[in-house]
Amino acid sequence: MKRYRHPTLEASLSKKRLNQEARCILRSRKNGVAAPCIYHIDYEAARIYMSFIVGQTLKDWLVALPSDAEIDAKLKAVGLSIAGLHDADVVHGDLTSSNIMVRTSADVVPKLQCSVQVREFYPHVVADILRIICFVVFMVQVMQASGDTGSCSVIDFGLSYVSAMAEDKVCHILHCLALGAYLCCMCMCVHAHAPRCHRMTSMPSL
Fold first, then answer.
1. Model pTM?
2. Is residue 83 within 8 Å of 31, Cβ to Cβ?
3. Rounded distance between C-alpha atoms, residue 15 and residue 41, angstroms
4. From the candidates 87, 89, 94, 128, which is the catalytic residue?
């Protein structure tokens, strides 16, 4: 939130950004890309409530010294996720090793809490119907949530946008290639210093 902006303009821009982020996440999930499951969008608080992914970032996972075979398989999975994003015409905008999660268990699904104030605005029957509809939609999202242990999930779609232009996707791929070069150098450095240090604590944040 920018305090120097007019409240009306800030509210309009914030709503647009929230809708764009949610749209990109939904398009990615529909195309098979593992991403958080959206439960609710609060426009007044400018927040998106989504599933919590249990795991560690790809950067931390690589620093933990996995085997070469595991690294090869994981980076191939990342490549498939990027291909899935582009197939859905989604450009992430900030795809770094800190925005890719390696799952260690299924998503943590928050309990569904229906507001007590519903009965103050609607009759009892309507309130019960709304609760049933809300619960059904919630369960459908839970069943659709991908929670395979060890899989990669893309997070932080705050800078993402929808584009079918090849130029945008090429720039995205070039950024990912630069990321891949950094990851290769990082892995070589970590493995070279593994006998003396099992974990690098002064890693620059991507």
1. 0.68
2. no
3. 10
4. 94
Q: Are 19 and 139 contacting, i.e. CB atoms less than 8 angstroms apart? A: no
Q: Would you state the structure tokens that stand for residue 109, as one six-digit string?
A: 């699904």
Residue 203 near residue 119, CB atoms below 8 Å: no
Annotation marks residue 128 as catalytic: no
Based on the number of CB atoms within 10 Å of its own CB, is 81 exposed (0-12), middle (13-18) or buried (19 or more)? buried
- pLDDT tens string 123-145: 566 666 766 676 666 556 555 54
29: exposed, middle or buried (C-beta count within 10 Å: 0-12, 13-18, 19+)?
buried
Please count the other Cβ atoms lying within 10 Å of the Cβ belonging to residue 190: 18
* Domain 7-109+147-192 fold: Transferase(Phosphotransferase); domain 1 (1.10.510)
Pairing between strand 90-91 and 161-162?
antiparallel
**DSSP classification of residue 45:** T
* pLDDT class of 113 with cuts at 50, 70, 90: very low
Nearest-CA neighbor of 205 among 80, 103, 59?
A: 59
Measured distance CA(181)–CA(78) in Å, rounded:
14
Task: Parse the chain into domains and list their residue ranges.
Answer: 7-109+147-192, 110-144
Provide the pLDDT for residue 186. Answer: 52
Query: In sequence order, what are the residues at sequence separation of 6 or more whose Cβ sits closer than 8 angstroms to the Cβ of residue 45?
Result: none
Q: Which DSSP helix (H) or strand (E) runs through 2? A: none
pLDDT tens-digit map of 35-63: 998 888 888 888 899 988 889 998 889 88
